[in-house]
Amino acid sequence: MSESLPLREHYLALIDEIVETTLKGKISSVEQVYQMLLKGITSGTGEVFELALSDRLTTLQTQVDSEKDELKKSKATRGLRAIKTIQTQWQRWQEQNKATEAIILAVREITIASNDERLAVFLRLTDPNLKYQLNLSQLQQLAKSLQQFGEANSDLAQISTGITRGVASWQRIQENLLSWMYEQKGSLGFGGVPGESGPWASWAKLVKSEFPAAFFRTLALEQSAIEFVQKQQNITLSDWVELAIILQFLQRGLVSWFDQQAYDIQAGPKLSISTFLTFAVIWSQLANAFQTQGIVYSNGASQIMLQILRTFAQRPYFPLYGGIFASFSGSSLRDALDYLDEPLRSVERTQEKARILTLLGYSQRALGKYPRSINFHQQALEIARNAKDSYCEIANLNHLSRTYVQEKNYAEAINYSQRALILSRQAGDKTGETNALVNLGYSEVMQAQQLENIEPEVYESAINYLEQGLKLAEKLGDVQSQALCFSSLGIAYLVIAQHEAAIKYLEVGFKTAQVSGDLYLQGRNLAYLAEAYYHLLNFEKAVYTGGLGMYLLEQISSHEWRQAAGLLTIIKGQVGADQFQVLLQQNRPKIISVIGVDGYDYIPQLLTRYQDS
Predict the structure, then answer these.
(1) ∠ CA(507), CA(331), CA(558), 5° rounding?
(2) Residue 81: CB atoms within 10 Å
């Protein structure tokens, strides 16, 4: 077969030769077919070979189906069997040459792309959601291949340099990926003393290149990633690619390790979730920051953020019901998740998008932004329904119920919880059913209070739903749902003035929320505990729980911190400023054990802020 023939003709001739040789009995094993393919196919031209193979398969199948002459039909049938053998061996060839094929394909697509598209193409071809992902050595091969095509300082050469430096930096970090955990003596989150401990400070010391090292130092000091980028004068494409490689492998390395700690309450899924969210937010902030540096860099950062979220949304522990997680972003969450909203708007309506919108919806509820929360959940509900993701659909019905309770629209809250209950039972979604029972009971308690209904049967019926939900959550071993059940029962008993029962459930609710890592539920339980203790005239415990709850809620920007601040202000007015300070001082060791000295010192400042407002 002449190499001068066009490639498709070359492959048609190769297929015909194998078929003819098989029919003549000169090929006695599939291994011989494979060896002929190995010699005849050039790497990176698989698509052309597949088209040629498909053509011959169609031709012979038509001949077998339509041929009347028995002799010719028999030959065509044997030819078809030979083609199917070629097909099987072609699949084997593909499997054994995946890495080579992927690298050749990547080089071809990156080199033919325009300068403005080159980075986006590179990121698409290294997407962790692809069926075949390039490993470190394959990335290094890709870098060498690009270097051969790129002149000095060209985009191709810069991508190549960025890959090479990024891989080298990651390999240095990889050896000491978790050393910061041992330095922090048991603290597994992204917190630590700013600039002194924690992962970013540890990794900054391991990176030799100035740009990623400076970026890590910025994160270690809990300073703005946006301001850092905006101060940089000359960020090159190689700098950008290097940072991208390091951050991507950091995130995957941490998630891989946390996923292996599935039975560790402190680590496991909780920290995997925190890691996914932390890195998604970092990339979203970078997308924002790079708008002043160039749209190519900004779009690239958004592209990586969406890749991370797509990977996250497919994980079995994706938090359809979880709150905001304690280790997510160091000392303060603030409005970090807001950064995910803008880039998400451009994404197509997919199952993954519905799940991310669910997360944004309940995060907005925690921040007290109820109309925005409802908007996110309504979007997610429609997309989940169209995608036939019943678990996500039920979760959004439940979240809508919970948000309408916060808006004091109890009729709508009951409506959505009833729909969630019916659908969850039909779908066999026990977690959804648990949450629906809790939401239904909670909504009915709050509606009865609003209507000033004093009939005990109404409250008994509502609390019965809550208790059913708790039993189901305990049976499932679902810690997040248990935390919500305890919290809802505690608030329900507080509403009907059974303060001792309220305290029992709220205290367990707080401890359970600590295990699940839900900061919002922790703060909320403490705020309501303060109310229960206040009604029992136990001012010492009211000050302890109220101060702690106020701090935690303010740290995640939840407007509900003002509820606890208002109660503490009343207590301070009743007992006097000096006695209030004594009560706070008595609880100092317990408060410091949860939020540290800085947190304790911040409590009086928060109260002053509330009073001034």
Answers:
(1) 60
(2) 14
Residue 137: how many other CB atoms lie within 10 Å: 10
* Cα separation values, 492 from 395, 447, 502, Å: 22, 11, 7
Q: Where are the alpha helices (DSSP H) in 387-453?
A: 390-406, 410-427, 430-450
Question: 317: exposed, middle or buried (C-beta count within 10 Å: 0-12, 13-18, 19+)?
Answer: middle
- As a 3-state breakdown, the chain gives helix, strand, coil percent values, each rounded to 5, of 75, 0, 25
Kindly report, residue by residue over 97-134, the tens digit of the pLDDT: 777 777 888 888 998 898 889 999 999 988 988 877 88
Q: What is the pTM of this model?
A: 0.74
Whether the CB-CB separation of 423 and 394 falls below 8 Å is answered with: yes
- Encoded tokens for 592: 């410091």
402 touches 440 (CB < 8 A): no
C-alpha to C-alpha distance for 75 and 69, rounded to whole angstroms = 10
pLDDT value at residue 324:
56
351 versus 256: the higher-pLDDT residue is 256
> Model confidence over 175-204: pLDDT tens digits?
888 877 766 544 445 544 555 667 898 899
> In 3D, which of 466, 434, 470, 414 has the Cα closest to residue 321?
434
Question: Are 484 and 476 within 8 A, CB to CB?
Answer: no
Chain position carrying tokens 């992927």: 102
Question: What SS3 class is residue 429?
Answer: coil
pLDDT, position 118: 92
Distances (CA, A) of 424 to 136, 276, 440, 456, 495: 44, 28, 13, 29, 28
Q: What is the pLDDT of residues 207-217, one digit of tens each?
A: 989 999 999 99
Q: Is the separation of the CB atoms in 483 and 513 below 8 Å?
A: yes
Q: What angle separates helix 430-450 from helix 456-476, to the nearest 10 degrees? A: 160
Q: What are the CB-based long-range contacts (under 8 Å, 24+) for 35-40?
A: 37/86, 37/89, 37/90, 37/93, 38/93, 40/1, 40/10, 40/11, 40/14
The beta-carbon contacts of 84-89 under 8 Å, at least 24 apart in sequence, are 84/57, 85/22, 85/30, 85/33, 86/15, 86/18, 86/19, 86/33, 86/37, 86/53, 87/53, 87/57, 88/30, 89/30, 89/33, 89/34, 89/37
Cα–Cα distance for residue pair 578/381, rounded to 1 Å: 52
Long-range contacts of residues 120-124, Cβ cutoff 8 Å, at least 24 apart: 120/296, 120/299, 120/300, 120/303, 122/159, 122/241, 123/244, 123/300, 123/303, 123/304, 123/307, 124/303
**φ, ψ for residue 319, nearest 5 deg:** -80, 80
- Give DSSP secondary structure letters for 376-399: HHHHHHHHHHHTT-HHHHHHHHHH
Q: Which of 334, 200, 329, 325 is nearest to 266 (CA)?
A: 325
The closest of 381, 409, 396 to 435, measured between CA atoms, is 396
What is the rounded (10 degree) CA torsion for 168, 170, 175, 177?
160
pLDDT computed for residue 153 by the predictor: 61
Residue 391, CB-side half-sphere exposure with 13 Å CA sphere: 15
Q: What is the separation of C-alpha 346 from the centre of its chain, rounded to a whole number of angstroms?
A: 18
